[in-house]
Amino acid sequence: MRLSDRVNRVTPSMTLAISAKAKAMQADGLDVCSFSAGEPDFDTPDHIKAAAKQALDQGKTRYGPAAGEPALRAAIAHKLRTENQLNYGPENIIVTNGGKHSLYDLMMVLLNAGDEVIIPAPYWVSYPEMVKLADGVPVIVETTAATGYKITPDQLAQAITPRTRLFVLNSPSNPTGMVYSPEEIRALAQVVEAHDLLVVSDEIYEKILYGPTTHLSIGAVSEASFERTVISSGFAKAFAMTGWRIGYLAGPVALIKAMNTLQSHSTSNVCTFAQYGAIAALEGPQDCVETMRQAFEQRRRVIVDRINAMPGLACVEPEGAFYVFANISATGLSSLDFCNTLLEEKHVATIPGVAFGAEGNIRVSYATDLDTIERGMDRLEAFVKTRL
Ligand code: PLP
């Protein structure tokens, strides 16, 4: 079959592939400890499910506006104004099939062939591939554990060229769990303003924060950075709604209109009754979010302490999201060999750092129960011992 150059340029998602392999091994009856998925292990809270069921019963089963149900766009705008100090109205919001889709749409409407997009590494697997799908050029800026895997203002400034169209900022980060402090965000905002750069701020993990860590949206720093920022987010992580496929993008009306045109010829509206669940997620009680966050915090403590106690492994303590990024370079194995052998020999699934543009590391998701974490860490420790 002759396929398009566009799709041939793209690498399939390694996180989805390894999660699928781990699931297939489980289906074969093997006891797999999976730390691969970027998915909360909790069920969607009941009041959110009830709102979607009620919408079904009320006949919210038809096509709706491509940009989303007006009530959901209004609820998202309200959330961004009150929680994030971002002055958006409903006309600045488009509802998408997940945060992944909002970013994909953004690249499609923004980039011309050869346009550059600055992406700090380690990065979420899909950013560079989406840029390539839109004929753009990912410009990867490597960061290190020494700067907490965060891009510095100097690095950002140096990466800008006349072809730069967009800077992708992700805090809290997948895969490192690092969070840019308000001071760091303000320093990056200065570069964004000085170079008249457009930034997409992927804030999908904003509610999963630990200790004294706080989240500041770069768009809230000043009017000048607000004008240069678009926000991408979704309901999957904070509300355990991964399978619902609801995300959103907030930005200038002209951009939202362009995305609406794209959606009107590709996906049409996001599942109508699911959007009523999302309204309940935003407007209903928020204690479910806090309960899940506390569970993640407890697991983080266990997993970070276990990994840092293992000879040959080390990780920086994550401040948000539900991932640990562990350095495996002392084993001398490539991250792909490490993850494949660990899965085959010990039935422990993790994701190789190479998928995130950071060889020498693995990503361990702790969106799983404490028993699996303890058993999986025992196996990981035994595995690493044999490789030192
Ligand atoms: N952005 C980041 C950083 C993510 O980790 C993910 C999911 O893993 C997404 C966006 C997209 O999430 P979804 O499409 O499920 O809303």
Can you walk through the features of this model?
The strands form three sheets. The chain has a seven-stranded mixed sheet with strand order 2-8-7-6-5-3-4, with helices on both faces. A four-stranded antiparallel sheet has the order 9-10-13-12. Strands 1-11 form a two-stranded parallel ribbon. It is globular, with a radius of gyration of 21 Å. The chain has helices at residues 5-8, 14-27, 46-57, 70-84, 99-110, 126-133, 153-159, 182-194, 223-227, 253-264, 272-283, 287-309, 335-346, 370-387, and strands at 33-34, 93-96, 116-121, 137-142, 164-170, 199-202, 229-234, 247-250, 314-315, 323-327, 348-349, 351-352, 361-365. The chain is of the alpha/beta class and 388 residues long. Strand 3, helix 6 (126-133) and strand 4 form a beta-alpha-beta unit. Helix 3 runs antiparallel to helix 11 (272-283), helix 4 packs parallel to helix 11 and helix 5 (99-110) runs parallel beside helix 6. 43% of the residues lie in helices and 14% in strands. It is built from 14 helices and 13 strands. The chain folds into two domains: 5-44 and 287-385, Aspartate Aminotransferase, domain 1 (Alpha-Beta Complex); 47-283, Aspartate Aminotransferase, domain 2. The model has no long low-confidence stretch (mean pLDDT 96). The site of pyridoxal-5'-phosphate has 13 residues, from helix 5.
